[in-house]
Amino acid sequence: MNQSIKVLSNLVKSSNTSRSLINAGSRRSVLFKTLNTNNTVRNFSTKQSKIDKDDEKTFDYTDKLVVQKLETYIPCYTIMNQDGIVSKPEQDPNFSQEVVTKMYKTMVLLNTMDSILYDVQRQGRISFYMTSFGEEAIHIGSASALDMGDTIFAQYRETGVFLWRGFTVDDIVNQCCTNDLDDGKGRQMPMHFGSKKINLQTISSPLTTQLPQAVGSSYAQKLAGEKNCTIVYFGEGAASEGDFHAAMNFAATLSTPTIFFCRNNKWAISTPSKEQYKGDGIAGRGPNGYGIRTIRVDGNDIWAVHNVTKLARKIAVEEQVPVLIEAMTYRVGHHSTSDDSSRYRTVEEINYWKETKNPINRLKNYMVRKNWWTEDQEKAIVAESRQLVRESLMKAEKRKKPALSEIFNDVYSELTPNLIEQQKELEEHLKLYPDEYPIDQYAK
Amino acid sequence: MLSRNSSNFIGSLIARSFHSSSATRSAPSAPINYPSLKIENAGELQKMNLFQAINNAMDIALKTDPKSVIFGEDVGFGGVFRCTVDLRDKYGANRVFNTPLCEQGIAGFGIGLAAQGATAIAEIQFADYIFPAFDQIVNEAAKYRYRSGNQFNCGSLTFRSPYGAVGHGGHYHSQSPESYFGQTPGLKVVIPSTPIEAKGLLLASIREPNPVIFFEPKLMYRSAVEEVPVGDYEIPLGKARIVREGKDITIVGWGAQMRVLLQACQMAEEKLGISCELIDLRTIQPWDVDCVVNSVKKTGRLVVSHEAPKTGGWAAEIASTIQERCFLHLEAPIQRICGYDTPFPLIFEKFYLPDHLKNFEAIKKTIAY
C-alpha cells in the first residue's frame, strides 16, 4: 500500500507538471531559453565539432552543365563457348573427371526430373511444378563454389543447387507429393523446399522477401565470427520489388557477407526484361547505386558461373562485404505448370537459346573433347535418371499425407488455447462426417 | 514518411486531456491512483518512467544474451523517444546500430537475424510506419515456423514500436494497429500500460520463442512513473491483469486506455455506486479469454474500449467470444467504446478519443439496461 501511495504521488506530480517538465528537456525550449537570455549561440550537439567533407574526396565539382545518361554497360564474363572450348585455359577450374562427371550427371538428372514431374503435374498427380530448363549451369556452377556452412535463401527455381548439396530426388518428390515424409509437413505448395541438412532456409512464394532476410542472416554470421556467408538467389523480376532495394542498401551500409545472386532469364512470367527495367540490367545497380561490388556472368557457362561465385564468396567471407552477381540466361521452359509461354514469346526465340547457348550441351562438349563422355554413357545416365525419378515417384505417391494434427502444430512453438480448442472442434466434426472427408489418406 | 518531426515530437508530448480543467469538472475529486503491479522478491527499486523501464529491459536483454542486437532508425544515438539511450556505448556499434530508413528492410533483416540464431530487437519508429513492413511481418515472420515444418523459425525476433494517441499526432503519429496483427496466426501482440509491466513484458517478449510485436504507449513514455525493480524479471505473455476487482460490470482495455478506464470506473463508483472490475488485457494475441470469461460470468456485463477504430477493432473479437461463452450470464448487450471509423484527426482528437466520459456513459447505460 505504501508503495502505491508513493507511485500515486509520482504520477500526480508528473501529470500536473508534465508539460513543463517535458518541455524543459526538449530542444525547442532550450532554443527558446538561449535566445531569451542572449547567451552565445551554441550547438546543441554534444559531439565535438567536425565538418564532414567526404564528398570532396569522392567526386569532382564541375562548371559544365551535363545531364548524365547510361553509356557504359557492365561486360559479361564468359570463358567456355558452345563447343566446350575454354578461351582462357588458366581460368578453367580444372576439376577432375570424377567431379565434372558428377556435375554433368546432376544437370542431366535435374533436366530429366523436371521433364517427368512437369508431365506428372499435367496428369494431375501433383498440384504444381516449376522447371529449371536452361538454368542448370547457374545451379551447379554456383553451388559447387559454396561451403556447406554457407546459408542459402532461394526463390524457387534453384532445384539444382539443392541437388548438388545433397538434397535427393526423394526429398524433392516427397515435398511435391506433400506426403508424410515432406519436411515441410505438407503445408506449402510444391517447389517450396527447405532443409536444415543442406542449410537451405525454407522457400516462400512472396517474391524478394528473402533478400533482406539473407542480409540479416549474414549479419548474424558476421556477429558470431563465422567464416561463412549467406547466398540469396532471385530473378530479375523479383529485383523490381522494394525488398531488393532494402536488402542491397542494408547489406552495403551494414557491411554484411552476402552474395546476391540474380538469375536474369529475361522473363518474369510474361513480362520481358525490357518492361522490367531501363538501366544496365540488375548488375548496373550494384557499384554506383549501392556501392556493392558486382560481376555480370554468362549464366549458361558453368565454369564462368563457378569462378564468379567462388570469387564472390572469397570477397564476402574475407572482407565481410556484399557482392552482387547477375547471371545472364534464358528461361527455356514455361514459368510454371500454370503458364503457357507460347502466348507471349516465339518458339524461334526459345530454340535460339536451346541451340546456341545450351548450358548442358556446353559442358557435354567440354567432356567429349577430353574423351570423358560418350553417347552410350549419355543414354545410360538419362535412363538411370528416369528410373530413379519414376521409382521415387511410385514410393512417394503410395505414402499417406501428414497427420491432420499438423494443421495446428508449429503456428507457434506451442499450441495456444484457441488452437487446442479448434483442433478439438475439427476432431468432433470429423466424427460426425467420417465419410465426407478423405481421412484415411492421412497419417494417424 | 517525410513528416515524423521526431526530435521535436518528444519535447511536445502533452498528457492526455483527462488532466485538463474541463475533464476535472466531472472527474472524481481524488487524484487517480493507477495501482502498481507487485513483483514478488523484486529486490532493489528505482523510480522510472516508461521509456526508462523499456531502456532498462533492453539493457538486461543485451547483458544476458550476447547474441542479441538492437537496430532501427535512429536507435544508435538513443532513439527519438530515448528508449535506447546509452546502449550503443555500453554494448558496441555492432550490437546497437542504425539501419537505413526502410521499414520493410528492418523487418526482413530482423527475420534473417533470428532465423540464423541471433536475438533481434527491431524498432519501428512509429506504429503508423509499420505498414511498409506488413508483408514481411504477416507473410514471412508469422509463417516462418509453420511453413518450414518447424525446421526453421524466427522466434527470437521482437518488434518494438510506439503506438497510440499523443495529443497532436494527427494521422501518422497516433495509430493503434494492433488488430491488423492480432488477426495473423503466428504473431504475438503485446501492449503494456505501466513501466513495471513494460519491463517485464518486454523481457518476456524478447525471450519468447515466437515473433512478438510490442506496442509501447508513447503517451506514457514520460508521464507514467513507478518504482520499478532494477533486477531481471519477466511477466508472462497471454495473461491479463485484473487491475481492480468489482462485481457489477467488467471493463476491458489495454495500453494508454487503462488510465482512461480507471477514471471512468472511479466516476461510476463515486457518482452511481457501481462496482467495476477493470481488466488490462496486456496481450492482444493470444488473449486471456479465461480471465475475461470468468469476470463476465461474475458481473454479467461487459464494456470493451480501445483507441483504434471500432469496425474490425479487437473489441469485436472480444465481444463475439464473450457472447459465445457467456450468453446465459449476460444481462446487457456488450458495449464497444472505441475510436470512430475515421482516420485519426488532428484538431478533433479530444472529440475522437473514447475518453473517460464516453466510457462512463457506456457503463451507466449497460447497468441501466
Automatic annotation (TrEMBL), chain A:
Coiled coil: none annotated. InterPro entries: Alpha-ketoacid_DH_E1_comp, DH_E1, THDP-binding. Keywords: Metal-binding, Mitochondrion, Oxidoreductase, Potassium, Thiamine pyrophosphate, Transit peptide. It catalyses: N(6)-[(R)-lipoyl]-L-lysyl-[protein] + 3-methyl-2-oxobutanoate + H(+) = N(6)-[(R)-S(8)-2-methylpropanoyldihydrolipoyl]-L-lysyl-[protein] + CO2. Its EC number is 1.2.4.4. Its cofactor is thiamine diphosphate. It holds the Pfam family E1_dh. Residues 104-403 form the Dehydrogenase E1 component domain. GO terms for molecular function: branched-chain 2-oxo acid dehydrogenase activity; metal ion binding. One of its GO terms (cellular component) is mitochondrial matrix. GO terms for biological process: branched-chain amino acid catabolic process. It comes from the Eukaryota. It is found in: Mitochondrion matrix. The keyword Transmembrane helix does not apply. The keyword S-adenosyl-L-methionine does not apply. SUPFAM superfamilies: Thiamin diphosphate-binding fold (THDP-binding). Belongs to the BCKDHA family. The branched-chain alpha-keto dehydrogenase complex catalyzes the overall conversion of alpha-keto acids to acyl-CoA and CO(2). It contains multiple copies of three enzymatic components: branched-chain alpha-keto acid decarboxylase (E1), lipoamide acyltransferase (E2) and lipoamide dehydrogenase (E3). This is 2-oxoisovalerate dehydrogenase subunit alpha. It comes from Polysphondylium violaceum.
From TrEMBL, chain B:
Residues 48-223 form the Transketolase-like pyrimidine-binding domain. GO terms for molecular function: branched-chain 2-oxo acid dehydrogenase activity. Keywords: Mitochondrion, Oxidoreductase, Transit peptide. It holds the Pfam family Transketolase_C. Its main location: mitochondrion. InterPro entries: THDP-binding (IPR029061), Transketo_C/PFOR_II (IPR009014), Transketolase-like_Pyr-bd (IPR005475), Transketolase_C (IPR033248). It catalyses: N(6)-[(R)-lipoyl]-L-lysyl-[protein] + 3-methyl-2-oxobutanoate + H(+) = N(6)-[(R)-S(8)-2-methylpropanoyldihydrolipoyl]-L-lysyl-[protein] + CO2. GO terms for cellular component: mitochondrial matrix. The keyword Secreted does not apply. One of its GO terms (biological process) is branched-chain amino acid catabolic process. CDD domains: TPP_PYR_E1-PDHc-beta_like. It is found in: Mitochondrion matrix. The keyword Metal-binding does not apply. Its EC number is 1.2.4.4. Its cofactor is thiamine diphosphate. This is 3-methyl-2-oxobutanoate dehydrogenase (2-methylpropanoyl-transferring). It comes from Polysphondylium violaceum.
